[in-house]
């Protein structure tokens, strides 16, 4: 389910996802945009910009009618197929996390314009965890403690949960977590 909100500027309606779009590092990501207007257009311009926090927006690519004008630096990464205003990013990198701004200008009798912002978060898949025991023999009879350490090499928003015989373990007299 996508929840959309529309930005209305004069007779031009521009619709984008209203929530943060999550993409996976190394995979393609599609930013879905719809626009419609009730005017006669002689020229339709679509512009895509990218901004990270505390930095100025960068031009990615744009189109006038059906002709796409890419920024040469990014031409192999971003795709726009006018008259559709949707943007395809392929492949997605961690550095692509931020805000994507789409602006549509329609020239007829006058010019009508609308712009919207789409927030993109990039997730890195979690690698298989490794577990180390101290003492390394893993044998503690009657007295003493054993420490289990779990680590992952890569992954965003990692959460750890220890289980014993299929049941979640919680802090108590027998278990401590750090």
UniProtKB/TrEMBL annotation:
Q: Quick one: a GO biological-process term for this protein?
A: centrosome cycle
- Pfam families under this entry? V-set
**Protein name stated in the entry:** HECA2 protein
Checking PANTHER family in the record gives: HEPACAM FAMILY MEMBER 2 (PTHR44888:SF1), HEPACAM FAMILY MEMBER 2-RELATED (PTHR44888)
Which PROSITE patterns does the annotation name?
A: IG_LIKE (PS50835)
Specify where it is mainly localized: cytoplasm
Subcellular location(s) of the protein: Cytoplasm; Endomembrane system
> Which superkingdom, per the lineage?
Eukaryota
- Gene symbol here is Hepacam2
Q: In the UniProt record, does the keyword Oxidoreductase occur?
A: no
Question: Which residue range or ranges hold the Ig-like domain?
Answer: 129-178
Which keywords fit this entry according to its UniProt record?
A: Cytoplasm, Disulfide bond, Glycoprotein, Immunoglobulin domain, Membrane, Signal, Transmembrane, Transmembrane helix
Q: Could you give one GO CC term from the UniProt record?
A: centrosome
The annotated topology with respect to the bilayer is:
Single-pass type I membrane protein
InterPro entries in the record, alphabetically?
HEPACAM_domain, Ig-like_dom, Ig-like_dom_sf, Ig-like_fold, Ig_V-set
